[in-house]
Amino acid sequence: MTEPTTQIPNLYALLIGIDYYIPGQLPNGGSYASLKGCVRDVNRVEDYLKKTQKPKQIFKLTSSNTSAETEDQLPTYKNIVAKFHAITEIAQKDDQVYIHYSGHGGRAKTIYPELKGAGQLDEALVPMDIVKTNERYLRDVEIATLLKKMVNKGLVVTVVFDSCHSGGTTRGDTAIRGLEGEPDTTSRPTDSLVASREELIQNWLELGGTARKANAGDWLPESRDYVLLAACRPSEYAYESVFNGKESNGALTYWMLDTLNNPSPDLTYKSLYDRVYAKVQSQFQTQTPMLFGEGERQVFGRSYANVHYTVNVLKVDTARNRVQLDAGSVQGLGEGAKFAIYAPGTTDFSEKNKPLAIAQVTADITPADAWAVIDPAGKIIEQASPAIMLSAPIALVRRVRLFESTNQVLPSELLKIQTDALTAVKTAIPKTGKGWVELASEGEHYQVAINTSGEYEICDRNGIPFPNLRPPLLVSDRDAAENVVKRLVHLTKYQAAQELDNLSVLTNKLVVQLTDKNKKPLADPTKQTLQTEEYTFLHIKNESNQELNVVVMDLQSDWAISQFDILGEDGASFATFAPGQEELIPLSFKLAEGYKEGKDILKVFATVGPAKFRWLELPSLDQPIKARKQSFDEYDENTPRGGGDPLDKLLEAISADPDEIPPTREAQVMSSNRGWTTKTVTITVKAI
After folding, report:
1. Phi and psi (nearest 5°) for 509?
2. Which of 107, 239, 515, 517 has the highest CB neighbour number within 10 Å of its CB?
3. Gap between the Cα atoms of 268 and 12, Å rounded
4. Which residues of 4-26 are buried (b: 16+ CB within 10 A; e: fewer)?
5. d(Cα 110, Cα 139) in Å, to the nearest integer?
6. Could you tell me which residues come within 8 angstroms of residue 94 by beta carbon, excluding any fewer than 6 positions away?
């Protein structure tokens, strides 16, 4: 008797990237400006998929600013719908479908008033030729049907929308992926290439009826067989920017690929999302990525088995003690990136299997490969040895751009002193910044400008002022420029702590969520809004088979960082959780005097070894950061600060005294398989 064969599910991908939009204004005056990073987004996603997932087929539509595409390659409404239909037709039950859209999102007057009401809006993806009034958006009602057909066929669907639906303007090198101006009220064709109007309406009603909210998650059927990662909430902005001083990318796509190119066993979409959320929020305050669907599913899988994304050693240059890796700039590699190299054939990258060597990428990087120096020197490495990228470094040195406003923004009396005021900051950076911050003309982390009140204004990379920077610093105040730089150093250290993460074997074993007093998770268990002195509960559980040392750091709205004494042990370095132990910790928050709203970020760390996270503590921003002295009550007096442990060295680098040059430009996590991980919850606090 012939044994039945089990067919391995295939992966199909649909990638849509739109940089070039046909220029022009919509009839109501709005417009969709061309972008710079969307085609790059999908090209990098394509490279990643080919390298790690071996897709059966990739469908791709792009509109580049070089106009290199043929008509059938352009992301018009007709072509986008056709590719959705094609991928649904060719994929079979249990196959995976990955859809990635980078481009503008839009809002347009609904063409389904019987569903949404007259004058309401449709959410939509924006084809490159939408300026033509006879062209159509791909509307939410249509997207719901396209995706429902996939799910009904038994396909496992993952969708990434790196776009937004809110218009706005920004300054510098950052762009908003949304409509500039009011929602589009243009009269457009109402017929659809997706399905009949009757089918579209019926599907929409089945997915929630007429009272559906304009929410990216509502575009998908209520099923466990999908994941949607959206760039932001419907009312927010999705940004693209220059990262690491290089090329533009969408923030969501950049940090998603950065995470996927780092190794992690049992990587789930929830773990992926947690890291992307932390990275995006640390740089773009008004962009909140959203996750919908089956977050606990393994990335690019249906199960929860270990998964590792490796690159291979192409060549070994023994004379120069280096190896060539088959990954390069298209995978986001930069000088200084580190890889752990294992023996050929290795599939288990856990702690019990130690790497042969660590290799650090040099400046010899091409789009397809990179050379890396081996440590320790002389280690024998073979061709085809697998290498996994170690956790991404955390920038300790931040780039600052001085932004001069035009005469249309500032009154004439401030325009006269603007240049001198910014020059004073430029002069203060080398002396007061002590190497923690440096000037940049692009790819900045922070912008410094003068506002209409004659105050220095510190903004994030898209020009949004940081909240709660008090007291105001008037350009006329003595030492104001030096104090601006001190604040920049403070923000650098705060955000380095905010970005701390490590996707490890412990990540899915540490449960951290906001709940009610009965341990029932809140609607969004990682984010909550409270009034001052109102209570919520932090639920922490150790689901591993070993003891974990747990620490909760509170990154406060006044830019202070403090450690919680979570189990009532004042001054303790950590709380030890036995296997299976769980605790429900009541939380309430206050705002500093004069604050109307603030955001506290709780970072929960779990380590196998001793934890020394008090080094991360900072005073509030209006108090000076003082040089640290080791507390021998807290640590063994024979243990030098930082010790020899890679995690200790990482914390030492972040917490180095502000009056000293940082010990390194970046703090590098030595191995993502080390025994520590972190989870984040965010609490918005509003004054009563």
Report:
1. -95, -10
2. 239
3. 19
4. eeeeebbbbbbbbbbbbbeeeeb
5. 9
6. 9, 154, 155, 156, 302
Q: What angle do CA 564, 567, 571 make, to 5 degrees?
A: 55
Contact between 33 and 19 under an 8 Å Cβ cutoff? The reply is: no
Q: Output the pTM of the full model.
A: 0.66
User: Using alpha carbons only, what angle is made at residue 457 by residues 453 and 459, rounded to the nearest 5 degrees?
Assistant: 140
Rounded Cα distance between 472 and 456, Å, is 8
Specify the pLDDT at position 225: 63
Locate the domains of the chain by residue range: 11-293, 311-390, 398-496, 500-686
Domains 11-293 and 398-496 alike in fold: yes
Give the integer Cα–Cα distance in Å for 403 and 463.
9
Average pLDDT over residues 530-536: 87
Distance between CA atoms of residues 600 and 596, nearest Å: 13
Contacts of 33 (CB under 8 A, 6+ apart): 21, 175, 180
Residue (of 160, 98, 509, 503) closest to 308 by Cα position = 503
Six-digit token pair at 503?
Answer: 């996707």
Alpha-helical (H) ranges within 378-448 are: 412-432
CATH number of 311-390: 2.40.10.410
Q: What is the DSSP letter of 477?
A: S
pLDDT at position 213: 42
With b for 16 or more beta-carbon neighbours within 10 A and e for fewer, the 377-404 pattern comes to eeeebeeebbbbbbbbbbbbbbbbbbbe
CATH of 11-293, one of 3.10.450.50, 3.40.50.1460, 3.40.50.11240, 3.30.70.1130: 3.40.50.1460
Task: Give the CATH architecture of domain 398-496.
Answer: 3-Layer(aba) Sandwich (3.40)
Please give the DSSP secondary-structure letter assigned to residue 184. B
Average pLDDT over every residue of 269-290: 82
Instruction: Judge contact between 567 and 575, C-beta under 8 A.
Output: yes
Confidence of residue 369 (pLDDT cuts 50, 70, 90): confident
Rounded Cα gap, residues 389 and 359, in angstroms: 9
DSSP secondary structure code for residue 31 in this structure: B
What's the one-letter identity of residue 208? G
Using only C-alpha atoms, the chain has a radius of gyration, in whole angstroms, of 26
587 pLDDT more than 80: yes
β-pairing, 437-439 vs 456-460, is unpaired
- For residue 183, say if its preceding peptide bond is cis, omega within 30 degrees of 0: no
The edge-to-edge listing of strands for the beta sheet with 248-250 is 175-176, 239-242, 248-250
Answer yes or no: are the C-beta atoms of 342 and 356 closer than 8 Å. Answer: yes
Tell which phi-psi region holds residue 364, choosing left (phi > 0), alpha (psi between -120 and 50) or beta.
beta
Q: Report yes or no: 351 and 608 within 8 Å, Cβ to Cβ.
A: no
> For the ranges 70-74, 273-277, 326-330, 584-588, which has the lowest average pLDDT?
326-330
